[in-house]
Design goal:
Layout: H1 13-16, H2 21-35, H3 40-46, E1 50-54, E2 57-58, E3 61-62, E4 66-70
Length: 75
């Protein structure tokens, strides 16, 4: 049986919609958090924000990292 990814077969619906897996995953997680009952909903929403650093590498050395915060409000 041939692999669907290698043969140009079926494409995941999130990819066909022009999304990345991360954006699809974030939407699903947000929907699940909003379905929770209190006090679990409030607690889950406080953990929703993600903080990370992005650094470009040039000639094998990282440049100064840029700090980012991603949350649904930023989309």
């Amino acid at each position: 049986m041939a692999s669907a990814a290698g043969s140009g077969g079926a494409v995941p619906f999130w990819r066909a919609a022009g999304m990345t897996y991360i954006s699809y995953s974030n939407i699903c997680a947000s929907l699940v958090r909003n379905c929770l009952k209190e006090p679990f909903k409030t607690e889950a929403l406080t953990r929703e924000k993600v903080h990370f650093a992005v650094a470009k590498w040039i000639n094998g050395k990282p440049e100064k990292p840029t700090l980012r915060t991603d949350s649904p409000e930023a989309d």
